[in-house]
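Friendly challenge for the regulars: who can give me the structure tokens for this chain first? No prize, just bragging rights.
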Amino acid sequence: MARTPKITNQQILDAAREVFLQKGFSGSTLEIAQRAGISEASIFKRFATKEDLFFAAMGMPDTAPWIKELEVFCGKGDLKQNLVAIFLQILDFYSVVFPRMMMLRSRGMDLPEMRGKNAKPVQELKILMDFLEQEMNQGRLRSCDAQALAHMIMGALMNYVFLGQISSPMTSPTHSPQMGIELHQSVQSSTATRLFVENLVEIVWQGIAPH
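First reply, four minutes later:
Bragging rights claimed.
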């Protein structure tokens, strides 16, 4: 008797995420199972319903990778180049997060960690603000309102990802083909994206360069 292939929940979620981002909630559990290399019944041994699987697959990463980089960059190296690297990582992160959020909203779902004054985006904004304040305290940035600066930076970057999301080709009223995958790749590798970030840093730098 053939053994059922061993597979982790994360591998199932990765396969489910690919299918759901390509086809929306209409993506079948059979297709997910085939992509994961398991039987459809194996999915429902781990996740009670398709809805549960969808919600788990569209969950947010625990920690934004760009946040870890702030500790590496703080007070070190060329700050302008550091900002370019950080901004690109923020774009990369939100290009992954935004499609998942839109998929959840399309099903009338929401994540508790994305709501309220302690929502993840609010916490992430504060972390960026703290980083900017530390650079100011070290004389590497001109002293200014760090909160306003962090809002301006995050607003510009999120808007860039959002416009890329809503301008993706649509094949149905609820989703676009491979929207999460294509958006992530375009933000990650596009020369135009890097140019946007470099220009954004240059504009911001004119107001925050140390005296």
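The two ends are 75 Å apart (CA to CA). The chain has two domains: 9-57, 65-208. Your move, everyone else.
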